[in-house]
Design goal:
By secondary structure, this protein is α/β, with parallel strands linked by helices. The chain has 2 domains: about 150 residues, no CATH class; about 110 residues, Transcription Regulator spoIIAA. About 35% of the residues lie in helices and about 25% in strands. The protein is built from 8 helices and 10 strands. A hairpin with a 4-residue loop joins strand 6 and strand 7. The longest helix has 16 residues.
């Protein structure tokens, strides 16, 4: 499953992205829109109406459903369930957004267990997630989200590679080249999976020599982050290159990931 992620601070930009995704033949059932704003969810729903929107588990058509996220409360969701991104069970049969019975769900220690996109949603941003097994659909989604969310118009040249080093308190995976749909995402996913399968729970991703990150690479970082947490592990991004750091800051995920300036600092934290 390939995942592309776009973060939007303006509703008109998110609407433009939804229209562009549909125009580029990304099926509506592959598109998920997340927001804390009911007017935003309603507005996006108009663009997706009649485009094959999924239904609630009851089988009743719905403009949007509600995902109760620890540390945030209710998040309005257009499209498929993405509760696994938030590292928590889905809300099957959740009440409609205008249901007065709807309540926030905040658990003790939610600051540590908060959803990955907690800060973006809390700051009023919205998130578009496209997930598909189809390479063609994924490429179309990345093209749209790269341009409208990240401001990227073309990919950088170069191949992806990784080297692994074992340290006393952590494993270091040093990536070079790109973390992108066609080169790097699979390598990142399989590298972290192999380390977790081998019993490694403290993983440092050295991104100093990564010169390109697209919306699919961002989505893969999200997936590996959640996968590691789900298996009792912890990821730290080490010294992201200026290009990567810029995009992490642009999408605000730099405030969510554990990011260390160098390997020594990351290892000291693990102790």
């Amino acid at each position: 499953m390939k995942t592309a992620v776009g973060v939007f601070s303006r509703l008109d930009r998110a609407e433009q992205a939804i229209r562009a995704l549909l125009k580029n033949k990304v099926p509506a059932e592959r598109i998920t829109f997340l927001t804390r704003s009911e007017p935003a969810a309603t507005s996006i729903g108009k663009h997706l109406e009649g485009q094959g929107m999924l239904q609630l588990h009851s089988g009743t058509p719905a403009r949007f459903s509600v995902l109760s996220v620890s540390g945030i409360g209710p998040v309005l969701v257009q499209g498929p369930d993405v509760s696994d991104i938030f590292d928590q069970p889905g809300r099957a049969g959740a009440p409609a957004a205008n249901d007065p019975r709807r309540q926030a769900s905040v658990s003790p220690g939610s600051e540590d267990d908060a959803a990955f996109f907690r800060r973006m949603l809390m700051e009023g941003c919205s998130v578009i997630v496209v997930r598909s097994d189809s390479q063609q659909v994924a490429m179309a989604a990345v093209e749209v989200l790269d341009e409208l969310s990240l401001g990227i118009r073309k990919h950088a040249p170069g191949k992806s590679d990784v080297s692994i080093r074992q340290l006393p308190h952590a494993a270091v995976a040093t990536f070079t080249g790109k973390l992108a749909l066609e080169d790097g995402c699979h390598l990142l996913r399989e590298t972290v999976r192999a380390l977790l399968d081998g019993g490694q729970r403290r993983i440092l991703l050295n991104l100093e020599q990564v010169n390109f990150l697209d919306s699919a690479g961002l989505g893969e970082l999200v997936r590996t982050h959640v996968a590691a947490r789900g298996r009792g592990g912890h990821l730290t991004l080490v010294n992201p290159s200026p290009n990567v750091r810029h995009l992490l800051r642009l999408t605000r995920v730099d405030q969510v990931f554990d990011i260390a300036p160098d390997e020594l600092s990351a290892i000291e934290r693990s102790r």
